[in-house]
Specification:
The chain has 98 residues and is mainly alpha-helical. It has one domain: Orthogonal Bundle (434 Repressor (Amino-terminal Domain)), CATH 1.10.260.40. 56% of the residues lie in helices and 0% in strands. The protein has helices at 14-18, 22-45, 49-56, 60-67, 76-85. Helix 2 runs parallel beside helix 5 (76-85) and helix 3 (49-56) crosses helix 4 (60-67). The longest helix is centred in the middle third of the chain and has 24 residues, at 22-45. The termini are far apart.
């Protein structure tokens, strides 16, 4: 029995491998970067999730999703709003595609 040869690709990031398009990969990367920064900020507050939820304008279950890294639960727009509520000032930097 002849097995099909496995096609192996290389990717710059895990999101490039998971996404169907470069735009989708860029969106996933931006969301992941924001979520990680927000999560670290919230953890640094060392407060119960209810207090963090009030500070961020979210429900406690949404804070739990954020702290557990559930990227699929947050849009880029929502994460920008949460980052601002967490005290971040956002700057967008664009680069030419390779």
């Amino acid at each position: 029995m002849n097995a099909e040869p496995m096609i192996v690709g290389t990717f710059d990031s895990v999101f490039d491998a998971l996404a169907d398009t470069p735009a989708e990969a860029a969106n996933l990367t931006a969301r992941a970067d924001l979520l990680l920064s927000i999560r670290e900020r919230v953890k640094s507050w060392d407060v119960p999730q209810e207090q963090a939820a009030k500070r961020l304008g979210l429900t406690r279950p949404r804070v739990n999703d954020l702290l557990r890294g559930k990227l699929d639960k947050f849009s880029l727009d929502a994460l920008v709003n949460v980052a601002t509520a967490a005290g971040f000032k956002l700057h967008i930097q664009l680069e030419e595609a390779a």
